[in-house]
Amino acid sequence: MNNFSMKFRNFMSKLNAKFARFMQGRYGMDDLAKAESMGLWVVLILSLLLSWVPYLPFIFSILFWVLIIHMYFRVFSKNISKRYTENQKYLYYRSKWQNRRERMKKEHAQKGAYKFFSCPGCKQRVRVPKGRGKICITCPKCKMEFVKRT
User: Fold this and answer.
1) What is the pTM for the complete model shown?
2) For residues 126 and 138, what is the distance between their CA atoms, to the nearest angstrom?
3) Are 22 and 59 in the same domain?
4) Which SS3 state, helix, strand or coil, does residue 40 take?
């Protein structure tokens, strides 16, 4: 190895150690920060694609800076419990959205043979076979009966 590469490697290892010491006691990257960073890329690409629309680049640049400041504020924050709570709230809503999307995909796949209704009492989704005419449906969760046409 030549002299330059050894010096560069030594410099990078020192820089890495300094950054690791700086980050001690700070929150760091989590799922919400990763989502914000992806949002930054989306805003950046949209601003480039839609730069011809009046006032839109200005709005995108404000949104970009708000996102980047908030992301770095969270990453370098020393209030770990509050950042953890924010991340858990984000993960809760993300899982809710993912579960809903999966349920909608399953319902769409079964659309030909079944019809789906929501129970008027507890809002539970109930699946019944299609083409049976008017039937009395009993909710499996709250045992409420309601009549629907399939």
Assistant:
1) 0.69
2) 9
3) yes
4) helix
Q: Do residues 44 and 100 share a domain?
A: yes
- Which CA distances in Å does 146 have to 36, 58, 137? 44, 53, 5
User: What's the sign of the alpha-carbon dihedral 135, 101, 32, 67?
Assistant: negative
Mean pLDDT of 89-97: 97
- Does residue 18 sit in the same domain as residue 73? yes
Question: Domain count of the chain?
Answer: 2
Mean pLDDT for all residues in the chain: 92
Angle between helix axes 80-109 and 31-49 (nearest 10 degrees) is 70
Task: Write out the residue range of the structural domain in which residue 18 sits.
Answer: 3-109
For residue 69, pLDDT beyond 70:
yes
